[in-house]
Specification:
Elements: H1 2-39, H2 55-79, H3 87-96, E1 102-107, E2 112-116, H4 133-137, E3 142-148, E4 151-162, E5 165-174, H5 176-180, E6 190-193, E7 196-199, H6 206-210, H7 214-217, E8 223-228, E9 231-240, E10 243-250, H8 252-256
Antiparallel strand pairs: 1-2, 1-5, 3-4, 4-5, 6-7, 6-10, 8-9, 9-10
Length: 291
């Protein structure tokens, strides 16, 4: 009886061992499959993704990016000066961004403490910039768009500090006509803002586009399409201080163009001195369940 019990127990152990071995082999095969599908996959390149396919957006980007890049670069340089600047620094800013009309330093009352060039072609009142005092105290920038009988001027202000207290503003100002010349077709570009028209373009729709309720439109969107004055405009908004600039262009002509036939990509030529990387899957470690 004792021998029978021992034999039965041994048979159960052997059966359990065989069952566990089979389960292990199954799990290992599943692991190998997951490894090849998700870890060591064959590389591939998707040539079908062409990025922005909207011809209207492509046209807008081509028109406004050369303008916007220069404006954003100037703002970064202006914002980096948080102490009262020397005249040499202001002159250097004008040299780096030659489309600027001038740079002024004003105190917290709006009094001009220094300016480059020392005399301006038009009198400017920097006092309205002080309305953004709470922004300056937390090191944020401000801006104004002013239009009068002499034209339009954009003023961008960055705060400077003395003993960590807001002490005044460094103001860079410019005529938009000097900036839009960097666009490949400034006549097709309109620039407006939440404070009024900046650049009307040549289509005669600038005033009408500026009159739209941009403060409401911009509550939910930073880019879109809008019908106005018989045109179909695509637009993109960008913050400059507390206000927003809106770049627009009529997209009808661009969208009406027939797409060009796709071009076959030429095969890349590998250098004879460089080994071609293998695309074969990496070898896996030996199956631990194999005999």
């Amino acid at each position: 009886m004792k021998r029978t019990a021992i034999a039965a127990l041994a048979a159960c152990c052997l059966l359990a061992s065989l069952t566990g071995c089979g389960t292990m082999k199954t799990k290992w095969r599943e692991t190998r499959k997951l490894y090849r599908e998700y870890v060591n996959t064959d590389p591939s390149i998707d040539f079908s993704d062409e990025g922005i396919s909207d011809k209207g957006l492509q046209r807008l980007a081509a028109l406004f990016m050369p303008v916007d890049e220069r404006l954003m670069g100037m703002m970064r340089a202006l914002g980096s000066q948080d102490t009262p600047p020397e005249q040499e620094w202001a002159q250097g800013l004008l040299t780096s961004y030659d489309w600027l009309s001038g740079v002024a330093m004003v105190d917290t009352t709006g009094q001009v403490m220094g300016q480059v060039p020392s005399t301006s072609m038009r009198p400017l009142d920097f006092t309205p910039l002080l309305e953004q005092a709470e922004r300056y105290k937390v090191r944020k920038m401000g801006a104004r768009v002013v239009t009068d009988e002499m034209g339009t001027v954009v003023m961008v202000a960055a705060p400077f500090f003395k003993e960590n207290e807001w002490a005044g503003l460094v103001v860079a100002f410019f005529d938009p006509r000097n900036l839009v010349r960097f666009s490949p077709n400034a006549d097709a570009l309109v620039i407006t803002s939440t404070e009024g028209l900046v650049w009307p373009g040549a289509g005669g729709q600038g005033e009408g586009l500026a009159a739209l309720k941009w403060a409401e439109i911009l509550k939910g969107e930073v880019q879109g399409d809008i019908q106005a004055g018989g045109g179909q405009y695509v637009w993109q908004a960008r913050y400059v201080g507390q206000l927003e600039l809106i770049y627009l262009t009529d997209a009808r002509e661009a969208r009406a163009q027939k797409p060009e036939p796709p071009k076959n990509a030429a095969p890349s030529q590998a250098s004879p001195d460089m080994p071609i990387p293998s695309t074969q899957p990496l070898s896996l470690p030996a199956d631990p369940s194999a005999p």
